[in-house]
Amino acid sequence: MSVGFGPFPLQAEDLDPIGNALVDAGLETATALSVQRLLRFVIAFVVLWIVGRAVVVPLISRAFDRRDLDQHVQNPLLMLTKFGIAFVAVAVAFGFADYGNFLVSMAGIAAAGAFAIGLAMQNVISNFVAGVFIYVDKPFRIGDWIEWDGGDYAGVVEDISLRVTRVRTFDNELLTVPNSELTNGVLKNPVDGEKLRLKFVFGIGYDDDIEQASKIIVEEARRHPDIMDDPAPSVHLTELGDSDVGLQSRIWIADPSRADFVRIRGEYVTSVKQRFDEEGIDIPYPVRTLEGGLALEGREPISQPAE
Description:
Mean pLDDT: 79
Radius of gyration: 40 Å
Structural class: alpha+beta
Oligomer: single chain
Number of domains: 3
Helix content: 40-55%
Low-confidence stretches: none
């Protein structure tokens, strides 16, 4: 059988080579188009990413500085800005490469993976939400001394992210704490206010003069340069122990920090102890009195009396 095309008839056996050639040409065209689209995508993404990091991030950072935002607030916001730049770069590059609508394409993927990701990242999501609450509520800031878990853990906050908070202990150990651990329980921030009250109980003997001891405690507090005069130092009898009378001293320090807390309390207690020694006021040791006797029963006498 032949197919006529004017004066040049085309035989059936000639169709196979022509069809194969057309298929090969189509594959080459599709491959070239795919490579072209991929190059356009990569070029567009790289250009937008570089421009965003070089222009947008510095502008956002300067805007944060003008608003005097804390460093622990700026870090996650800058991170979100970088994520936003990456997302915009991918979306624009997707369209520039003629891959179609990026948001429509992502909708199916997001719907399919959302359930699995949600199950696998429950703890991560919980810590992320807790991190958002930390940024909003501001229970502590970078540089604050905090305590949590009933006082078992304490240290100075070094970094706050959306998932974890890093705390440097006073033994120079770094604790990486999930944010949910700091929002689900009671957290103490002793340095959040402008001043901090310190308490210490001095034990004196029952025969010592309570008024004289109280006077010494207050005088030594007033002599210390880092103890505030307002609120004024005070002393209260709070304990009647087995061997001593407890006088609780209450003093205030300004602009507190962990170092100030330890130093001032140590210096103050040392000065009071020295005054007690000079004035003859005793700080007694615990005394325990044991009463009773020992009885030996069922024992043979060692020797018999002489007859």
